[in-house]
Amino acid sequence: MNYRKRAEEIFDYVQGIRRQLHTWGEVGFDLPQTVALIDSELTKMGIEHYPVGKAGICATIGKGEKCVLLRADMDALPMDEVTGLPFASTSGGTHSCGHDCHAAMLLGAAKLLKEDEDKLNGVVKLMFQPAEELLAGAVDMIENGILENPKPDVAFAAHVSVGQPGTTVGRVTYSSGPALYSGDAVKISVYGKNAHGSAAYMGVDAINIAAHIVVALNEIISREIPLDEHSVVLVGKISGGDTVNTTAGYAQLEVSLRAQTEEKRNFLKQRVKEISEGIAATFRGRAEVEFVYGMAPLYCDPKTAADADRYVAQLGYEPVCIPCAGGTEDFTAVANIIPSVMLNLGAGSLEEGHLCSMHNPGMIVNEDVLPTGVAIYCQCATQWLEENK
Ligand SMILES: [Zn+2]
Q1: pLDDT, tens only, 167-215
Q2: By the number of CB atoms within 10 A of the CB, which of 75, 289, 290, 354 ranks highest?
C-alpha cells in the first residue's frame, strides 16, 4: 500500500479544503463553517460520524476489536492575517498555527482509508477537535466520550512546523518520552501596607517584597534543579505601587513555569508558593499564589513513537527523534489517557525564506506538506492495526 503516491494524487482535494478553512479562519469553539464543511465532506464519503462536545466531530472507519485514533485540530487564532495570500482570511481569525492543514490532511486520510475499509484490521477513529489554542477542545471531547465506544488503543497526531531552522518539507520529527514542556501561568499578589515615605517604617512595602521574591525565585533553577534537567521559572510581568513617595500597599507578579515532567511541574509550583509566602511573611506582608491556568507536559509513549518512526520511514521519509521542546499542546489530554505520539511535519524552514514562525500572522505554510500528512495518518493507522490484529 503506497499511501505516499495516493496522497499526492488527492493533493488538489486536500489543498482546496485547506484553503477554504483558511479563508474562514474560525476561532476557539466557534467553528460553524469549518464544522459544516467537515460534516458534509464526511457525509459525501459515506463515513459514519457524529458531533462530540461543543464543536468536535468523531468519525469512524472500519470494524473490529482494535482501534487507532487520529487527531487533527481545526481552530485558528484571533489575529489579523498579514500574509497577503490570495486566500488570506479577513474574518479576524488566522490559521497561523496550521490547524487548517491538519483538518484538511485528516479529511484526505479519511478519503483513502474509506477506500481501504475492507482491508482494515480494526477501527480508525478520527478526532476533529476545536479550541486547541484555548487548551480546552480535547478535554471537552474527552468529557463527551471521544475516547469511549470503542476506546482507542493508541493515538497519533500531526502538527506542521514552520519558520524554524531545518523545518523543511519532508522532514518529520517526534519525541520519545517527554515531548513538550508543561506550561503554567501563576499570579502572585503581594499585600503590604501604605505609609508616607517619611514614615516608611510604619508601612509594609509590597514592592520590596516583590523584588525579593523575584530574586529568590531564581534560586529554584540555580540551586534546586539537577544540572541535566531543564525547567523555566520566568517572572514575565510585574506591577504595583501607588506614588513615588509612598510604600506600596500592593504589587503583583506574573510568572511562567515550564517543566519536563509532571513531578517536576508540581515541585516548581510548590516551591513558588513556599518561597513567595515565606518571603512576604519575613517582611511582614502577605502573598497569595494563584495558578491561573496550566497544561501538563506532553509525554509520547516510547513504543508508539518507535512504531511511528518505522511507519514514517516506510513511506520514504527519514524521521528524526528530537529532545523535549518548548510549547504546549492540548493533545496532552489524550496522551495522558492512551499511548500516543505526536509527529511534527516540516512545512517551510527559515533557510527557505519562511521568516514568520508559528502564531505569527504572517506565517505561510508550504502546501507540499499536505500529502505528507495524509500519507502519515494513513500509514500509522493501517500499519498499526495490521501489526496488532
Ligand atoms: Zn497548533
Answers
A1: 999 999 999 999 999 999 999 999 999 999 888 899 999 999 999 999 9
A2: 75
Q: Residue 236 C-alpha to ligand 1 middle, in angstroms?
A: 23
CA of 26 from ligand 1 middle (Å) equals: 14
Report the separation in Å between the CA atom of 22 and the middle of ligand 1, taken as the mean of its atom positions.
14
| pLDDT score for 131 | 96
Ligand 1 centroid–CA 45 distance in Å is 27
Of all residues in the chain, what percent carry a pLDDT higher than 90? 95
d(CA 319, CA 187) in angstroms, rounded, equals 40
Which CATH number does the domain 183-295 belong to among 3.30.70.360, 3.40.50.300, 3.40.50.10540, 3.30.300.20?
3.30.70.360
**Model confidence pTM above 0.85:** yes
Protein residues with C-beta less than 5 angstroms from the ion ligand 1: 97
Parallel, antiparallel, or unpaired for β 250-258 and 183-191? antiparallel
> 117 C-alpha vs ligand 1 centroid, how far in Å?
29
| Each residue's pLDDT tens digit, 70-115 | 999 999 999 999 999 999 999 999 999 999 999 999 999 999 999 9
- What per-residue string of b and e applies to 45-84 under the rule 16 or more CB within 10 Å gives b? bebebeebbbbbbbbbbbeeebbbbbbbbbbbbebebebe
The whole-angstrom separation of Cα 102 and Cα 259 is 27
What CATH superfamily classification does 3-181+299-387 receive?
A: Zn peptidases (3.40.630.10)
Distance CA(349)–CA(168), nearest Å, equals: 5
Query: Cα of 221 to ligand 1 centre, how many Å?
Result: 28
For ligand 1, the distance from its centroid to the CA atom of residue 245, given in whole angstroms, is 47
Distance 100 CA to ligand 1 centre (A): 10
CB 332 within 8 Å of CB 295:
yes
pLDDT at 1: 67
